[in-house]
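Sample entry (431 residues):
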Amino acid sequence: MIQTITPADERFATLLRGRAFDLEKVTATVTEIVNAVKKGGDQDLCAITARLDGVALEPANLPVSAEEIKQAYGLVSEEFLTALRRAAENILRYHRRQLKNSWLDPQPNGAVLGQLITPLRRVGIYVPGGKASYPSSVLMNAIPAAVAGVPEIVMVTPPARNGAVNPHTLVAAAEAGVTEIYRIGGAQAVAALAYGTATIPKVDKITGPGNIYVTAAKRMVYGAVDIDMLAGPSEVLIVADDTARADFVAADMLAQAEHDEMASAILVTPAPSLAEAVGKELAVQLEQLERRSVAAASLAGKSFIVLTASLEEAFTVANRFAPEHLELMVAEPYRWLGRVTAAGAVFLGHYSPEAVGDYIAGPNHILPTGGTARFFSPLNVDVFTKKTSLIDYSRQALREEGEQAMTIAATEGLGAHLASIKIRLAGEEED
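Predicted structure, serialized as tokens:
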């Protein structure tokens, strides 16, 4: 069961050091897979899938047909479809607020500077699959891309052993604006998106979380394509004071712990009575979970209750951890929000469980993990755009600033740079 420690405990420091995937242990395997698909295309893609995933596919079977998507709608409940559409509406509304426009800034000397913001042409989204279904991840990947104006949104997802893709995933893809779907997963799917095959044309960027093999493959193909981030095991950190309800806190910790054995659920509090009550609640609620063996492993190996001397120290610990999800179960959450310097998403108050962020609220649930919230942002519309600088110098602007540009060019020893400006200024003198 979960242990109660202090911020100075070496066990907490060990957790901080070991939160990310150890990608090196799968690098050799992933390198072999990526190179095989890069060279062998569809044939190696299908052969690797048969060998590793036990799914027999031919290249012609890789694409999911429009008829399969149509049939999927008949396999999901109206209740699910209603919930999915509500979630999609909220996600769409939130991400539309992020959309930025190109801009021009005319200068007094006649120059015009600006920035052109354009969508990427083709992006690939990875959605975990196989036995499980993650329609929420489809929405979180595809909707920001659609808002950005990406014309080709390509989804890859592992099929079941019989080659079928979960109908909930297919319906989510159709609702979110995905334009192509391929029944393929793992590192081989990442390689196919990055380098292209006869069946799957290459993309410009790959987004979406996956297992350690998918993450290692994304790191490997970066440069051939762009990627969003290198995601690791999921995590939540809850800062709570004595106004928090122990059953709420325990429920949210277990919601994170049930993801997998490597997930982290951390409570940081200055209230010893709350720490004790949460420990008891965890034991009670754990027994009611279908995935209790997974959650129990997370609580025992990757989760802690951290007892601090004050609420101020609790926020110092939270910023040091830089969690994927940060919950503020305190009396005045907005008073303390300014103390937060590193978190993927912040959930304020006692009625904002992390689960609403996963499914329905609207902000993206694809978030930086493993402390990378110090420098990474959640998946967002900007991820699916590129920015181009615009420079339109007038004759007057070049006369005013050309000499300074030539001085810098001379300092750097780049004579042709200097000459390309000087020849224009010489022409001005002749006029």
